[in-house]
Amino acid sequence: MNTQVSEQQDAQREAAEQAAIEKRRERLKSESLRIIEIANNESNSALKCIHQLSVAGGATEATYIAIEQRIVADQDPAGAYHLALLAQSTPDLPVDARQLIELVVNKGDNQQRLALLKNLPLPPVDIIKDQILVSDDSEAIGQMNAYLQINPEGYGSHHMLTSGQSDQVVPLSRGNGNNLN
Predict the structure, then answer these.
(1) Which of 116, 88, 92 has its CA nearest to residue 102?
(2) pTM
């Protein structure tokens, strides 16, 4: 008798877990459709979409593709930076991280380039270095040189964290007191 009750409870628990998974899956599909709609119809909405993606806790492949397409269409280096970081930390995302990184390096500002240098696991150091040097921005050049002095290979913060040093992901928003130092 106890075995039957236990089996029924297990079956009910499993059914409840499966129902919760289905409910979450449906919610993610719904959120994904909403985010895709924003990406497809609102210029310069990549950061908004990435935020919504984060709030939703994930999305469909089509959502990531729509956000990447929005970034490319707008030539949005800030959106490219954030999606590139996501792609670097989640290797199965259906986005071309190299394209996003190139967009940041070529169209972004020096703060974005320095943030790439610090936050990508394996940043394109020479290309970033060249772009910062060409800008003739002495402050950015100083920050880059100081960073490369302690990290000559240019391994991003991921490497520094695993080697016992502490660092954090550098936000690109200004005015909140955070900087690259």
Answers:
(1) 116
(2) 0.76
